[in-house]
């Protein structure tokens, strides 16, 4: 007699397990749970309005209410593909390292709008291949803690790899500066905004830039975030003014493109640290702002095309903060900067979902995809959007209610995952029918088509 029967229970695509959606009270966003795995991850509600580009969705949902955060990969049908460790994760980004696909992400201690931690680089087996750190002690960092308990002082905002095997990150140091231009004391306290380029394999610093060491070119008066506003700091030692709040850095040729959120500014830096040009989102800086090109409190600024005459940049323009309210609709902005003549900034593109506008107050990302598509992550508004080349919305993907779930950034990227772990299996015997159902999932596997579970018979009394 057959006491239990093992049979092909299900076909698992993309490594995602069997998900049941359980609503945990009124305000809690439903989580996906699995019979085969203890993983609990936010349900991703994907609706499509058109053709999207290829690839998986990479983001790091943080459940603010239930207190958990993970680097994660999802497929477009809302299935979880990979869940990393439960930890405070920022700046997760799929990229190429040493010619191979890799994922970078920050983990560490966060607070006050910045953090102190490290960048982990994993390969497509989900094993850590490099830990990039910036020793707080060795590099003489002053943090908000006394005595200094932290090992590594890399900030949350960036983890950008270059073709040269280096990593670009931001960092925050607490120091003193003259705040009289913004109505503060001459010996006020500030969060200095720093940029580092670090060689991944040797952890050696190749480039360092400090905003506070360039006050002649980057004066504190550029800041739009007022002294004493929530998150910007009051300028005393325990509440330093975060006037620069650097939130993206990328390298083009030898130069560095830097975004300062609280200065509403974009800077191009030369290798010697001098400012080649400055674009201010309210006043123009070195440029003249044409109609519709104003921006502020922006995120994720990148150069998408450049000639000697014209540089085109993209950004996530939230133009809102925790202290200004949510007045302005969040858009993806493409600006053409004329490098010669009248140095006019003209509007080259703007994407936003007019039917369901987003008004986000912190975080966000803008990714240029193939065929002119754009992917935006909206930070504190837990929503990912894709637009086509005409600016029409083609995908909305929500993973939480506003301000209860967040992901600093989001990306779409092609990916083949070959986990170094084994699949997770659970078998449930039904007392009523004597049938056994087998549940299988494999964290991070992308090319599973089906599972073949052989049927074994056991004879009573053997
Ligand atoms: C997913 O979002 C759509 C569009 O907002 C909504 O109509 C639908 O009810 C949502 N699905 C679930 C299961 O929440
Ligand atoms: C995730 O980690 C946080 C902080 O350590 C902890 O409070 C929480 O219970 C963890 N959540 C899960 C689901 O493991
Ligand atoms: C980051 O995560 C690693 C485990 O991957 C852990 O060992 C390390 O302590 C974490 N770093 C910080 C700064 O939290
Ligand atoms: C990175 O740090 C984690 C946690 O400390 C460790 O498990 C892992 O082996 C490290 N990776 C490398 C490549 O050293
Ligand atoms: C941080 O600021 C202190 C005080 O001004 C200074 O001594 C130290 O060198 C700075 N550290 C870094 C990493 O810039
Ligand atoms: C610093 O500023 C914060 C916020 O305004 C305030 O709570 C704190 O008491 C101030 N500390 C000192 C030493 O003045
Ligand atoms: C990459 O490294 C090479 C050799 O060290 C150097 O000449 C080149 O300038 C680097 N490129 C960038 C973009 O840093
Ligand atoms: C720094 O580099 C810029 C751009 O190449 C150059 O114009 C400037 O003179 C340099 N400054 C110094 C102090 O060397
Ligand atoms: C700036 O120059 C461009 C190209 O020469 C021209 O099209 C534009 O009208 C000028 N704008 C202003 C404000 O002068």
UniProtKB/TrEMBL annotation:
Pfam families: Arylsulfotran_2. This is ASST-domain-containing protein. It comes from Sporothrix stenoceras.
């Amino acid at each position: 007699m057959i006491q239990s029967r093992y049979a092909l229970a299900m076909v698992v695509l993309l490594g995602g397990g069997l998900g049941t959606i359980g609503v945990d009270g009124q305000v809690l966003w439903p989580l996906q749970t699995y019979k085969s795995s203890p993983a609990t991850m936010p349900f991703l509600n994907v609706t499509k309005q058109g053709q999207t580009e290829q690839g998986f969705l990479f983001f790091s949902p943080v459940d603010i209410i239930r207190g958990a955060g993970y680097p994660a990969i999802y497929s477009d049908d809302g299935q979880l593909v990979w869940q990393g460790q439960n930890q405070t994760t920022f700046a997760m980004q799929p990229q190429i390292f040493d010619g191979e696909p890799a994922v970078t992400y920050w983990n560490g201690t966060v607070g006050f709008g910045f953090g102190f931690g490290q960048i982990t680089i994993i390969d497509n087996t989900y094993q850590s291949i490099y830990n990039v750190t910036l020793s707080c002690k060795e590099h003489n960092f002053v943090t908000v803690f006394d005595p200094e308990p932290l090992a590594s002082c890399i900030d949350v905002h960036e983890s950008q790899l270059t073709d040269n095997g280096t990593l670009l990150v931001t960092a925050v140091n607490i120091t003193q500066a003259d705040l009289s231009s913004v109505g503060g004391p001459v010996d006020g306290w500030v969060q200095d905004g720093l940029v580092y380029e670090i060689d991944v394999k040797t952890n050696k610093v190749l480039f360092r830039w400090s905003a506070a060491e360039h006050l002649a070119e980057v004066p504190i008066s550029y800041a739009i975030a007022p002294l004493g506003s929530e998150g910007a700091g009051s300028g005393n030692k325990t509440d330093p003014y975060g006037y620069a709040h650097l939130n993206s850095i990328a390298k083009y040729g030898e130069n560095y493109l830097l975004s300062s959120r609280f200065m509403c500014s974009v800077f191009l830096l030369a290798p010697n640290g001098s400012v080649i040009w400055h674009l201010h989102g309210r006043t123009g800086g070195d440029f003249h702002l044409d109609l519709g090109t104003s921006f502020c409190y922006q995120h994720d600024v990148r150069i998408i095309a450049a000639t000697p005459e014209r540089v085109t940049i993209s950004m996530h323009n939230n133009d809102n903060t925790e202290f200004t309210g949510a007045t302005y609709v969040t858009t993806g902005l493409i600006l053409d900067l004329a490098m010669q003549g009248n140095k006019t900034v003209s509007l080259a593109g703007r994407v936003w979902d007019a039917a369901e506008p987003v008004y986000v107050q912190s975080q966000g990302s803008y990714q240029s995809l193939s065929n002119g598509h754009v992917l935006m992550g909206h930070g504190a508004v837990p929503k990912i959007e894709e637009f086509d080349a005409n600016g029409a919305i083609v995908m909305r993907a929500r993973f939480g209610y506003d301000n209860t779930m967040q992901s600093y950034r989001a990306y779409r990227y092609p990916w083949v995952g070959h986990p170094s772990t084994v699949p997770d299996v659970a078998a449930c015997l039904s007392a009523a029918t004597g049938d056994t159902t087998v549940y299988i999932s494999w964290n991070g596997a992308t090319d599973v088509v089906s599972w073949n579970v052989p049927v074994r018979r056991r004879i009573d009394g053997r």
